[in-house]
Amino acid sequence: MIKISNVTKSYGSGESKCDALKGVDAVIEDGEFVVILGASGSGKSTFLSVVSGLEHPDSGSIEYDSVDITKLNDRELTKFRRDVVGFIFQQYYLLADMTVDKNVRMGADLAGNRDHREIINAVGLGNKIDKYPRELSGGEQQRVAIARALAKKPKVLFLDEPTGALDEETGRQVLDYVTKLHSERKFTIVMITHNQNIAEMADRVIKINSGTIAETYENKTRKTAYEIRW
Question: In terms of Cα–Cα distance, which of 65, 52, 50, 54 is closest to 3?
């Protein structure tokens, strides 16, 4: 379980100060698929950054099974990110001079996972392990990024607008892969998006507006990637 209590985060100072998060409280249960929904500038990206340990909040606590990551030093926080969380961003951040196999193995090596090819097969790229990123489509590159993140065997997977750079068909494929792997492997998903339709796929939706949580609700019936409107 992730427990977020009275978390604040601001940038700048004086007249240029921006309060990105204003005393946010939330709980994310183990195995949940949670969407953080909000418009550009709402604070959702900052929420992801501080809850995942990429940035320090100004105040408040963020507990993972009673371990408050806001009290960890830089070395401890790096170990936490390595051992507990995985990231998938809108940009793929693949190493251009490495094959699919080697890009994914990088994530696997962090966790001592020797079954990284199982993950490559799970995302449908078993026949492209020797290809380089430049030889792949955008959707295939994103699937490599997904495989690399999951090869770490994270307990929590954070996704930042993972379909933002993809066309509709490819975006649906990527979301379908993520949700199927989530069902099989039971990790927690926290996905940020501005897309109300994608939010219909989640167990629960947390709406953020102007740095505060405006609304939280559960989807009584989750839709698949091929049922939502685009």
Answer: 65
This prediction has a pTM of: 0.90
Sheet (strand 67-68) strand order: 18-28, 2-11, 59-64, 67-68
Rounded Cα distance, 204 and 223, in Å: 12
- Quote the CA–CA distance of 162 and 172 in Å, as a whole number: 11
Structure tokens at 72: 């960890």
Handedness of CA 198, 122, 186, 190 (dihedral sign): negative
For residue 151 the two structure tokens come to 């090869």
How many angstroms separate the CA atoms of 117 and 136, rounded? 17
The percent of residues above 90 in pLDDT, for the chain, comes to 69
96, exposed or middle or buried, with CB in 10 Å at 0-12, 13-18, 19+? exposed
Model pLDDT, residue 123: 82
C-beta separation of 210 from 18 below 8 A: no
Q: Which pairs with CB-CB distance under 8 Å and at least 24 residues apart come from 24-27? A: 24/60, 24/208, 24/211, 24/212, 24/213, 25/213, 26/2, 26/206, 26/213, 26/216, 27/1, 27/2, 27/3
pLDDT tens string 181-220? 899 889 999 999 999 999 999 999 999 999 999 999 999 9
pLDDT in tens, 112-138: 777 788 889 888 899 999 999 999 998
